[in-house]
Amino acid sequence: IFLVNCNSALIKIFNKIETIEQEQEVCGSYNPNWQILPSTLSNNRNYYLNSLPNNGCEKFINFKEFEKNEIIALIDRGNCTFFEKALFAQQAGAVAVIIVNYDNSIFSPGGNETEYNQINIPVLMVSESNGNLLRNLSKTNDINNISLGLYAPEWPKIDPNMAITLAIAIFLITIASFWSRYNEEQKLNKYKKDSNDNENDDDEDETEANVFIDKKTAIMLVIGACIAILVLYFLYSYLVYAMLVVFCFGSWSAIISIFYPLISCLPYKFLRKSFNIPLLGKMTIGLLILSILAVIPPLIWFLNRHEEYMWILQDILGMFIILIILKTLRISSLKVGCIMLSLFLIYDVFFVFITPFFTSNGESIMEQIATGGKAENTINEQLPLAILLPRIINPFKVCGQPFSLLGYGDIALPGTLIVYCAIFDYHKKTSCGSKLYFLTSLIGYICGFICACIALVVSEMAQPALLYLVPTNILSIIIVSLLNKQFYLIWNGLESQNSDIDNLEIANKVNDSNVDENYFELQTIESSSNNDNDNDNENNNFNKFENQQDDTIDIVSFHSEDDFSNFEHKKTS
Q1: How far is C-alpha 223 from the geometric centre of its chain's CA atoms?
Q2: Residues 18, 144: contact at Cβ < 8 Å?
Q3: What is the CA radius of gyration of the chain?
Q4: Per-residue pLDDT tens for 491-529?
Q5: Which among 139, 144, 148, 319 would be 20 to 30 A from 343, CA to CA?
């Protein structure tokens, strides 16, 4: 999570025509390592402008007016380093250097520590269009009629859009949690019914399929993320368009997954008529219509992604993708969630805090990928991998609209653990309510987000949000589960070796006054290959526990070793 401030500067143009003075502001980018600009125009003096005919890569000759007047040198970019341009201008007596880029993009002119120590004048960059404006003014007017004021207003440390970003994250996680809990309830109810209608079940299974994450899968996800971000960093110019296509396809698929259940509920029978399509298989008319309509939003975004307000559509499509990820991905236990989130925490910290020591410009790989790749990239493309919200307080309106960013992973990864807690609440209701662990983990997420924002304000640099979200999220769950004596149960959960099997909780009662029925819970995970055995007699559950080795995995959760001993004694008797 970080706020995109940029090292922006404002150039105030004072154009005196006869007795009328006209004012105009243009945007520039500057590097404070050369020389810091004043924060207000009142603390600044106005300087005259002189457009040089060369690119400033050699010593200035016959520019004695630089010594007589306080003049800003306007120089074209290219043929030598920013340091050389600034050094020659400084030696000639210029009070500042404005470098004109060869396109309409701008960035902070950089150098190294040794070069910074030799320059004591501000170095700015303006776009080609603004550079042409300044050059034309300097050529068509007397030097005494054009003056410039340079200043860089301070960004506010706190922006209200932080609260809006948090509200969006909470909204998405809450919707996904209740959606997953509803699906779990429907799935269990389906198994409890003696129904022979298999055709409709097949369709439902396709739309409600889940992917379970175990320990090996969690490790592979982190390794894959590391490889992906490194490949993007070095090959950004080549892979950025492929990532844009992936985003469009993912948002198209997410729209279908979200809205197809709604279309299926419409009272129009023709929408449920099915037919076969070569290579695609069976499809209903409603699904076909939705698939065609779902292409429109991603296509509009792709064709107009550089427009000023297209961030709204990008955020909506991104929220659809996050919802489907949270609904589809499932962790089987708190233990798996801790492993996955801890590994991603290390990944996040490394690519935000450690990689600046290895990059040539001293910026983190994570921040460069999120904001458009390396500075030397000539393409103007940004990966759609974060929720974008424009900063509400913006002192640089002429420079465009800066944004705050919250990565999709900062919502989806902790969100998988919160969804797990919501499903666990459904299976194991407590005396404190049926949403205890869901609310606990959600409060932990909110606390972590607030800590990340505080760190962002204090340090004034990008923060790995998982560094704060993961500890508060996990610790809140562990503390509450220990207080409720359910840590062992939520820690181990319903672990399965097969991601295609469904979870079915069977309540087992033991008619023995010496054994409390709350001491243990027998949870049976049945695969689709289970033999047809319709004997629902509760007394056969122990026989199933002993005999079903291949097709059934049974997990018994206990609160203590004494509980296990009591259960073993009862099972034997």
Answers
A1: 18
A2: no
A3: 31
A4: 988 543 333 334 434 333 333 334 343 433 433 333 333
A5: 319
pLDDT at 378: 52
Could you tell me what percentage of the chain is helix, strand and coil, using 3-state DSSP and rounding each to the nearest 5? 50, 15, 30
pLDDT for position 360:
77
Quote the strand ranges of 197-301, DSSP E. 211-213, 274-277, 281-284
Low-confidence ranges of the chain (pLDDT < 50): 3-5, 18, 194-196, 199-207, 375, 495-560
Helices 236-264 and 215-234: crossing angle in degrees, nearest 10, is: 130
Tokens 């062992």 sit at which residue? 488
Burial class (CB in 10 A: 0-12, 13-18, 19+), 67: exposed
Query: Over the range 439-464, which residues count as b (16 or more CB within 10 Å of their CB) and which as e?
Result: bbbbebbbbbbebbbebbeeeeebbb
Q: How many Å apart are CA 48 and CA 145, to the nearest integer?
A: 8
Max intra-chain CA distance, the chain: 109
Q: Which two tokens stand for residue 326?
A: 């949270």
d(CA 331, CA 446): 21
pTM confidence score: 0.72
Instruction: Give the CA distances from residue 306 to residues 4, 105, 250, 381, 486, in Å, rounded to whole numbers and listed in that order.
Output: 17, 13, 20, 8, 51
Structure confidence at residue 16 (pLDDT): 61
**Could you tell me whether strands 281-284 and 123-126 are parallel, antiparallel, or unpaired per DSSP bridges?**
unpaired
330, amino acid identity: R
- Angle at which helix 296-303 crosses helix 236-264, to 10 degrees, equals 150
The helix-helix angle for 334-349 and 409-427 (nearest 10°) equals 170
Buried residues in 149-161 as b, exposed as e (16+ CB within 10 A): bbbbbebeeebeb
Alpha helix segments (H runs only) across 265-357: 285-293, 296-303, 311-328, 334-349
Q: What is the pLDDT of residue 444?
A: 96
Residue 516: what pLDDT? 40
Comparing CA positions, the residue from 287, 270, 277, 279 lying closest to residue 203 is 287
Question: Read out DSSP for 123-152?
Answer: EEEE-HHHHHHHHHHHHHS-GGGEEEEEE-
Sign (positive or negative) of CA dihedral 535, 540, 541, 545:
negative
